[in-house]
Amino acid sequence: MWTESSCRAVLGFFSSSVRSTALRDTGAARRRRMVFLMLFVRFLVLGALCASVSHGLDITSTGSATFEKASGEAVMLSCQFNLAPEDTGPLDIEWSQLASDNQKEDKVIILYSGDRAYEDYNPAMKGRVHFNSPDPKNGDASINLTSLQPSDTGTYQCKVKKAPGIRSRKMQLTVMVRPSKPACSTVGPSHLGKDVQLKCVSSEGTNPVQYTWEKTSDTKVLPATAVMDSTGSTLNVRNASNSASGTYRCTARNRVGMDDCTLNLRVVPAPNTAGIIAGAVIGVLLALILIAIILFCCYRARNRKKYEKEMSYEIKEDVPPPKSRVSTARSFTSVGSQRSSVGSMSPSNLHEYAAKSMYNALPSEEYDRPPSQAPVAPLSRTAGPNLSRMGAVPVMVPAQNRDGSIV
Q: What is the CA radius of gyration of the chain?
């Protein structure tokens, strides 16, 4: 029985024979034409026989097997196939994401078996993978992947089985992230005669991300002294002049997308640093002087309060003398007088005792006054002898000054 491999082998053999015979034949032109005619007839007969050979199950998709898509986009992985009459077994279609490591298992993402599609087979791709045809058994096993993610990057295999035929096809999918909107900024001051750096950085984006700078104002030409780094993210404008002022645009791009930002550069003369330093020194000195004045005023106010407090302690009011000392001294005088009077009392001097009773009376308000306030009565010459005759005992009463202390 003729097979595809045997037909190819025979055709290859006769093709090589024709070429070798044509090279070896150096005879007459008539003989050469006869040889070519015979070989050509044999070639046609074998071609007809091989064309009648059945190929069985075969995948006929011939499109690209490599895809590069941006995150969030969709892609269709093609897998068209043909069936032969001898393929009588049940039809099974299996799509899987091959593991990059041989130690790991392949991940099946979608199945078709028993006239039924299983599209939610892989939880990571649930709702994002579908068969392109509502009935894959008609020869279309292609699938659609939607809302692509960077984790979807990998090698995918379409395997079609219908016993005894088995065929498969592999495709490579790369999911890339578009560059995010870059941020444009200047590094350092933009002064005349100084080097100015313009930076452009995109926080997201699958590498390689390339940056390009262009001037969109005035002459729309970058300064002659402008130099970009290897990736183009930094533009160095050396010895900046007034002509470098203007609007610049930076574009970040990779294989799946691009975005840009703008920057307005204004080159100005350098400030007078000497004047700034002098002003700063003067400001510091004024601040120190003000602080010294505040501290001096606080110190003076504190000393004044302390002086007034000490003066209030030195000024004292007149304090009346204690009554206990005066009354004690007078009580001793009264007791002594009573004892003397009682001891010398007789019928002959009763009238004298009666006269003494006036001294036994309680002291009046006049005697309660301090010595400094009580009126002083003039002493007569006969007061001393009369008191002695009446039996009075002389007692010395201590004197007091105006503030009440005993002298």
A: 64
